[in-house]
Amino acid sequence: MAKKNKYSITLRACYLAFITQAITANLAALLFLRFHTEFGISLGKISVIPIAFFVTQITVDILCAGIVNKIGYRTAIICSEIMAGLGLIGLSVLPSVMDPFAGILISAVIYAVGSGLIEVLASPIVEACPFENKASVMSILHSFYCWGCVGVIVLSSLFFIVFGIEHWRWLPCIWALIPLYNIYNFAVCPIESLTEDGKEMGIKQLLKTPVFFLGIILMVCAGASEIAMAQWFSAFAESAVGMQKTTGDLVGPCMFAVAMGICRIIYGKYGDKIKLTDFMLGSGALCLACYLAASLSKSPVICLIGCIVCGFSVGIMWPGTISIMSKRLPAGGTAMFALLAMAGDLGGALGPGAVGFFAQINNDDLKKGMLLGSIFPLVLIISVVIIKLKIRKER
């Protein structure tokens, strides 16, 4: 019990870090239309903002593999909270003191650095703590990203209703209080070393390990399966299901995130009784069924249910892959977590892009785009089966 209490502040700090990541990933999107009307920024320029966020996060993933071990986990994770806080405050201030688009873009890049660092560092920090059944702990940790997404969407929408969207500049500053407070948590919490000095696998060694390539494939498919449905949910609800745009914008992302969070909480609570690979295999099959239901069913209700349940099905994929690789490659260290994060982000870009492109060449038919998206959970299922066979062969 004493050990658990000792690391409770570490766990709390990482929970808040994932909430911070959810804030940085979702807040600006709620303001895109406001940026367009208030500053006259074209929608084409606005589309550059999430691209810049994504590219910055990928770059941080790559650089982390070589930098974090030199400066230390504590310094790096504190920097993540500082950058996230500064970027959010910049979103409030910079558009008013310089070219608005440049100010928004600079702010997005700054908090994207913080988000990228969190993505690479929070999981290994928790992995290094001496908790029992780390796969369950990891699942609960990642659920806080889901609850952060729901909180940002719902509470920000309430802020706009109560105070008016014309006062939006206060909102990023309010959300910035979370990472700024979390600086203190990471400054005082115990942070253990993930591997013994000199025993961590390097990038070259990881790339020579066959099972690591399976981990990369799993992460690409996990990111693609999750983000493809999450990003296209609102548009799909409007075009294929007939839901009003405002309702689709609010219900789609929220219901998806809630379903994903519930999955992670369930595994976090009962993970000691369930084999992780079996749970991931079942989740992959459910995800494939959801994509097929959304793309092939003529019933709007079944399509909508398929989209929502898909959130549940993808919940274990990202944290589950991290847990599998951590157990299979205990000396993987920072490089492993950084490369896995990069693979997940690449999948997060590939999935929505593939769905959107295939829909476009089929007369903007999102149902056909979703049908193409079903390839990602299918590949994930095959990869998990291969890992299960490898584990069985080693026994």
Number of strands: 0
Q: What is the count of distinct domains? A: 2
Helix and strand element order: HHHHHHHHHHHHHHHHHH
Give the helix tally.
18
What class, by secondary structure content? mainly alpha
Percent range of helical residues: over 70%
CATH fold annotation of the largest domain: Growth Hormone, Chain: A
How far the N terminus sits from the C terminus, by CA atoms, comes to 33 Å
> Whole-number radius of gyration?
20 Å
CATH class of the largest domain: Mainly Alpha
Ranges where pLDDT stays below 50 over 5 or more residues in a row are none
CATH architecture of the largest domain: Up-down Bundle
Q: Report the principal-axis shape.
A: globular
CATH superfamily of the largest domain: MFS general substrate transporter like domains
For the sheet with most strands, the description reads:
none
Strand content: under 5%
